[in-house]
Amino acid sequence: MRGRVPFPARARGGAARPVDAMSTGRPSLVIVGAGPRGVGFLERIAANAPELYDGQGLDVHLVDPFPPGGGRIWREEQSPLLWMNSQAQDVTMFTDESVDMAGPVRPGPTLHEWAGLDGRVFADRRTQGAYLRWVHEDTLAALPPEIRVRHHARRAVRVGGPREGRQQVWLDGLPRPLLADLVVLTLGHLDAEHNDEQRELAEYARTHGLVHLPPDFTADSDLSALAAGEPVIVRGFGLAFVDLTVLLTEGRGGRYERSPDGELTYLPSGREPLLHVGSRRGVPYHSKIGYDWTGERPPLPRFFGPVEVDGLLARPGRLDFRRDVWPLVEKELGFAHYHRLFAAHPERTRTEWADFERSYAAGTGDELRALAAAAVPDPADRFDPAALDRPLDTVRHASYDAFQDDLRSRVEQDVARRHDPSHSPDLAVFLGLLSVYGQLVRLGDVGPWWHGFFSFLASGPPAPRLQQMLALSRAGVLTFLGADLTVTAADGVFRAASATVPGQHVEARALVEARLPHPTVERSRDRLLGELYEEGAAVTPEGLLAVDPADGRVLDRSGSPHPRRFAFGPHTDARGSGAFTRPRTGGPAFRQNDAGARAALSFLRALSCRAAA
């Protein structure tokens, strides 16, 4: 890897020796999915094996049609124009002392340390793929010699076998299954069958010769049907949209220039389609924050920690997120915000922190809003999650032309604010969001609203991507449509309208759904998950695979954990806040991987001891 800073070599074992695809008579573990989560689980096997599995043979089978490390999403073979969405210093695959886990810390480099990058750089995904490949190789080297690994570059299509016996993992194109004492599903993001709306739109497109691109991983979408100069309606304003614009502009030969006054200008190639974008919120995700933390951190968790989660779990019946959980989450985020405001910017407050904190701790709902209004004179300094979540709710314009200036101004203000440390309560809220996510994992499936809210505030694009978006808007390549976007199909075209510009609409012969498919088990195109569901695996109301929060074992519909099947990742109700963990933030994914790996090793050790006896 060009520019890589050497990292201390690991002690090498015999892990890379291949094993036969079928049974060898040794205990066996099959990991389906060799992307970051699968490799992260294997890393925890390597870290815990000396304590829990020393001296006993084990065959590990990694099953994934894509190379281990990056898997499908983070593979090295994709456009060099696509970036990571996190700074290189904020991406690690290695545990540290902040992770609450039983297993040992096995430190390793962050992405920027490994690649020799400036920590603030947003590396391209090829570099991240190379980092993940190295993490996989480093993990293999860390395994004891008696644990052997083989990668099967195929797709797993079915898991069978009795609860108390060996499992059978069938691979596409092979006549016999892999035999596994344990199966771990780390499947990552999944393709999905269309829902009713998408089926209707797709059928309409086929009937009328239109273009309809359903939800998909953008790098895998065939964009060739989006013709130069032709209008395209895009529904979705998040990270998939950012990738889409990159591939349809720079990816088609356009380029950017910066003028002497600092404004970015887009120079079209003439091959770009004309993009018309809208969404539920009608605005792009907030810019990444561009300054570092200084001073005291808010003491988190404060109002939404283990005690509060224990109380929620003890309640009878199913929890309602907005009624039961959100008031605690909102109070926690507000506490992080005001703690920072009073500590770093006391001149913008009217009271002493001790008095405010005492009243804040005792208050709820409207009381907290009244307290903030009395103590913080500028509304821009108050924490208002409703306004953050729906910034265009009361905004109306007579025409799309009038709305363009408004939204460009909003994006410019957002980028400026996110790079101005005088607004550092925003960064405190970000830390609060990470703390909350770490607690919410214990509650399982909390519904889609929270994940969208988190992503909108905390997982937005780098500022340069938003500046490029503004340049595309000024160049006429990109038009903003507004909030509460509706798409209909009639008169041989797609038609989009928005509440922000009432009475107006745009028409196009192409529609792109710029988002990943929702990870529902019932509609997944993954045959393996579909069969698990049919066999009785439990699924949450939002369609996620239900797992035991203690160790990731798959639950059946009676709530019983399967003794030989585990699952981790976005298709489960224990999904985390993002693909990767920031160093020293106690990443829940690390904790889950460690608990699952220790449970798996303990099970396999007991199995091996029984066989030896």
UniProtKB/TrEMBL annotation:
<feature type="domain" description="FAD-dependent urate hydroxylase HpyO/Asp monooxygenase CreE-like FAD/NAD(P)-binding">
    <location>
        <begin position="30"/>
        <end position="189"/>
    </location>
</feature>
<dbReference type="InterPro" id="IPR038732">
    <property type="entry name" value="HpyO/CreE_NAD-binding"/>
</dbReference>
<dbReference type="InterPro" id="IPR052189">
    <property type="entry name" value="L-asp_N-monooxygenase_NS-form"/>
</dbReference>
<feature type="region of interest" description="Disordered">
    <location>
        <begin position="558"/>
        <end position="588"/>
    </location>
</feature>
<feature type="region of interest" description="Disordered">
    <location>
        <begin position="1"/>
        <end position="20"/>
    </location>
</feature>
<dbReference type="InterPro" id="IPR036188">
    <property type="entry name" value="FAD/NAD-bd_sf"/>
</dbReference>
<protein>
    <submittedName>
        <fullName>Adenylate cyclase</fullName>
    </submittedName>
</protein>
<dbReference type="Pfam" id="PF13454">
    <property type="entry name" value="NAD_binding_9"/>
</dbReference>
